[in-house]
Amino acid sequence: MLTTTTRAAAAAAAATLVLALSACGSGGDAPAAGGGAGGDDDAIVMGFAQVGAESGWRTANTASIQQAAEEAGVELQFSDAQQRQENQIQAIRSYIQQQVDVIAFSPVVETGWDTVLQEAKRAQIPVILTDRAVDSQDDTLYETFLGSDFVLEGEKAGEWLVENTQGEDQVNVVELQGTTGAAPAIDRKEGFESAIADAGNIEIVASQTGDFTRSGGREVMEAFLQSQPDIDVVYAHNDDMGLGAIEAIEAAGKVPGQDIRIITVDAVKDGMTALSEGKINFIVECNPLLGDQLMELAEQVVAGEEVEKRVLVEESTFTQEQAAEVLADRQY
Ligand code: AHR
């Protein structure tokens, strides 16, 4: 059970967060404690703790969730953690305090969730992980995990590089990692490294986090260009950091996509535009349109139905030619 002190802290956190929620234009009025929101008493109330607004992918993901909630008649309480785990934990505690019907969140980092998830479990509020996983021994702390296979994404990036650098003597790669400790940063690194391991000619000569942001990608790439005399390839864990790297490469008087080849992950519209223009060489897709599947899962878990513990998202890859073909129809 929660202690009186913890409950008081949670109540204070809830009060603070409700203000933050109304300030960021969430999906509806804050629900009254005890469940049920202002309007339809039967509507499912979902508390969603988003990572932040760090990338084009995240913007598309948030829009998908908000639109799907509206279409499904789910009352969405939405919070933006600004890429800070403590903000996400505070948001989840607020949703527990409000007794929402279901909590969903995309964890900023993999570890450190057991305590707050145990609190949700004790309050009998089901939890759905979306997009990113948690690293926990106890998989009863959440109902299901809906999201991509990030290791596979890293492997696809590495396999493309191996295929496209055959016969080259030495290929020096600089890696722009996502947020330190985040599942996609850990897994995309692991998948890429395993795919290039046997190639013999590919070496990661520098690797640093750009925090999944365009400005982070640009700053780290500027430093790499100063410290690394011979860069052949940039492997960026998302499009935004790759786009930042393009700015740094151009500012250094080099031609992105030619002097330095670039591989990214996501396939958002800005990334696909750069790919079709020849500034990026290959993109591994990570699909942000999780909203409809999330609402379906929420309805099932709230109804007490069994759901698959792991729900994978289908994804593709894009070459420059393929990007040019699909760009006009790209939704995000
Ligand atoms: O968790 C998904 C990743 O988070 C996306 O690839 C990246 O753009 C985002 O910030």
Tell me the number of helical segments per DSSP (H or I, 4 or more residues long).
11
Task: Describe the sheet with the most strands.
Answer: 6 strands, parallel
Q: How confident is the prediction overall: mean pLDDT?
A: 91
Radius of gyration: 21 Å
**Helix/strand structural class:** alpha/beta
Question: In angstroms, what separates the terminal alpha carbons?
Answer: 44 Å
Mass-distribution shape: elongated
Number of strands: 12
Helix content: 40-55%
Family: Belongs to the bacterial solute-binding protein 2 family.
Protein name: Simple sugar transport system substrate-binding protein/ribose transport system substrate-binding protein
Pfam families: Peripla_BP_4 (PF13407)
Domain Periplasmic binding protein: 52-306
Topology:
Layout: H1 4-23, E1 45-50, H2 56-72, E2 75-80, H3 85-98, E3 102-105, H4 114-122, E4 127-130, E5 144-147, H5 150-164, E6 171-177, H6 183-196, E7 202-209, H7 214-227, E8 233-236, H8 239-251, E9 261-266, H9 269-276, E10 282-285, H10 291-302, E11 310-312, E12 317-318, H11 320-326
Helix pairs in contact: 1-3, 2-10, 5-6, 7-8, 9-11
Bound molecules: alpha-L-arabinofuranose.
Alpha-L-arabinofuranose binds at residues 54-55, 57-58, 131-132, 184, 212, 238, 240, 265-266, 286.
What can you tell me about this protein's structure?
The chain is α/β, with parallel strands linked by helices. The chain has two domains: 4-147 and 288-314, 3-Layer(aba) Sandwich (Rossmann fold); 150-286, Response regulator (Rossmann fold). The chain is built from eleven helices and twelve strands. The strands form two sheets. It has a six-stranded parallel beta sheet with strand order 2-1-3-4-5-11, sandwiched between helices. It has a six-stranded mixed beta sheet with strand order 7-6-8-9-10-12, sandwiched between helices. Helix 4 (114-122) links the parallel strand 3 (102-105) and strand 4 (127-130). Helix 1 packs across helix 3, helix 2 (56-72) crosses helix 10 and helix 9 packs across helix 11. The longest helix has 20 residues, at 4-23. It is elongated. Bound molecules: alpha-L-arabinofuranose. Residues 54-55, 57-58, 131-132, 184, 212, 238, 240, 265-266, 286 line the site of alpha-L-arabinofuranose. It is found in: Cell envelope. Residues 1-25 form the signal peptide. Keywords: Signal, Sugar transport, Transport. Belongs to the bacterial solute-binding protein 2 family. This is Simple sugar transport system substrate-binding protein/ribose transport system substrate-binding protein.
